[in-house]
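Exam revision sheet. Question 4 asks you to relate a sequence to its structure. Input first:
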Amino acid sequence: METLEDWAKKLKTCNKLIIVEGKKDKQALENLGINNILTFSNSPHYSCENINQEVVILTDLDKHGKKLYSIIKKNLQKRGIKVDKKFREFLFQKKISHIEGIKINSS
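Answer key, structure tokens:
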């Protein structure tokens, strides 16, 4: 993945559950045509019991988001659920810190 456009295309076609923090994050990804998104804003205990497939965790890259990522990842891995880190690592490389701010200009 070289560009944000590449990132969005691969995320759209990866067929993995995508976990985000809130409604605005979910809306930003849906605006890019990405589906299969789970929002954790309504789950204060970050329950992962209903998840049974490989996931991509896209919490924000701020202090709160990093802590949340760690909790969710730990809970999933305890249950044997694989976490795909490459999409999140791409955002770190591009210095994108908030999912809700992701926009792609179409030409």
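Marking note for examiners. The longest strand covers residues 17-20.
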